[in-house]
Amino acid sequence: MNPPAFRSALALLATGACLGAEPRAVNLWQGAAPGDRGDIGEEHDTTTPKDQLIAGKPVIRTGNVSVPTITVYAAPADKRTGAAVLVFPGGGYNILALDLEGTEVCHWLNSIGVTAGLVKYRVPKREGQPAYAAPLQDAQRAMSLFRLHASDWGVDPMRVGVLGFSAGGHLGAVLSAATTRTYPRGDEADDVSSHPDFQILIYPGGLIQKGGGLALAPEVAVTAATPPTFLAMAEDDPVHVENILAYAIALKGEGVPMEMHLYPTGGHGYGLRPTGDSVTTWPQRAADWLRNRGLLEHS
Hints:
299 residues; alpha/beta; Rossmann fold; three-stranded antiparallel sheet
């Protein structure tokens, strides 16, 4: 996509979002993503009939993503608060749970007056790179593009956060920890900050180093610059609750405002689909947290 066509696509995205049209995806990059050869095969839904249902419904498991996109879901005009959230679905950096932890989440955010940007980042892991390397480039680009065009979508560029699930939660924490841009400047969007104003991490994995203990992975290092954080996870999560315990301790040590909800049961990968486990009430607690931080007040 050449620069004029790219700007036109973003303008159409902004217009469609503001008019309440069906959300449409726009490529994050002008042309190929940085360092990507596009040789991983065709993007497709990898779901099979044998895959587990979540709350009685199937899950879209999108694989082989080499053309990362952002899709803007504008909050209804009568509810719009000016706050916005970029949504990072999980899937172990192998696939993306694009409905369970993506579109469904965007619709929920809209219901509380928050504009959402669904980020379809590159998966699976690229050879010779950390699993999060290409997704981090996509996340940084998405945040900067979103802020650059915030006024087009009725968004306050100083109230843009992230919400990530599982590997998407790890990606949110990596984005919050990044101090430099991880790809060469391409256009004016890359001059805009990619640092989130707040983050919501739901059953995140990979926050602690392998081998036990509570030492954080270096790519998610917490500092005083880490944004205010909401954490939720179940104690019986096979990804291990130590991930949010260690992260919460680090946040506390740096004086970063945070709220953590630890539930007894619920496992992993439920998104916001309600089940019999109280962990699936986390959206209500997250909405309370956003409200208490003044993020749901109309701008």
